[in-house]
Amino acid sequence: MRPGTHWRPAQGEPTVTVLLRHGQTPMSVQKRYAGRSDVPLTDTGVRQAAAAAKRLASASLGVIVSSPLLRAVQTAQEVAAVNGAAVVTDDGFREADFGAWEGMTFAEVRERWPAELATWLADPSARVTAALHRVLAARAGQTVLIVSHVTPIKMLVATALLAPPAALYRMHLDVAALCEIDWYADGPAVLRSFNDTGHLS
Predict the structure, then answer these.
(1) Could you count the other beta carbons within 10 Å of the beta carbon of residue 86?
(2) Among 110, 113, 154, 198, which one is least packed by beta carbons within 10 Å?
(3) In this structure, what are the phi and psi dihedrals at residue 181, rounded to the nearest 5 degrees?
(4) Has 172 been annotated as catalytic?
């Protein structure tokens, strides 16, 4: 049994989610919102995905679950090519739909739509939580790699920490960064790592 927190022992073996943000894209370089935009990885992004794949080469992954957006699928395929785990897509792990904000920077959105931005920041979707529950139900006790985007990964971290929605905007997540969360059947979750980019150095 893996240890839980210092305050309460967790019961049984957890389902482990390893969370991987996709590699660099042209829009991530410019720090622009890229929600539904199906942008590919840059050459640097492909190299970052390959570095993550090398890091995860010997991980015992039950499956790789990817956002269906191209930048995430490309990243997932790099890992699958080295690890051998199958890749499936789940629309629940796609990035948020930024609508009219697509392609803008945070500063531009804040200047033009301050009230709407405040509302959006306070109301993240339940879509990601539903996708998480599907993974936990189907892959209990396994290690699952989830390849996704900034907002969904931060939502999963906030869920694990019982943090309010506003906590998402106090987290920094690099491209191709890894996080790891243990989810125990009796309720508790344990965040084991966050924004791990050791494979990129």
Answers:
(1) 11
(2) 198
(3) -130, 130
(4) no
Q: Fill in the amino acid letter for 132.
A: L
Known catalytic residue at 108 = no
- Single-letter residue type at 137: A
Q: Which residues contact 185 (CB under 8 A, 6 or more apart)?
A: 11, 12, 14, 15, 140
Q: Which of 6, 95, 133, 199 is catalytic?
A: 95
In the Cβ-directed half-sphere of 1, how many Cα atoms lie within 13 Å?
9
Pairing of strands 189-196, 178-183: antiparallel
Kindly report whether the global pTM for this prediction surpasses the value 0.90: no
Q: Which tens digits make up the pLDDT trace of 1-57? A: 455 544 455 568 999 999 999 999 977 765 655 556 678 999 999 999 999 999 999
Q: Which amino acid is at 156?
A: L
Residue of 22, 78, 116, 199 marked active site: 22
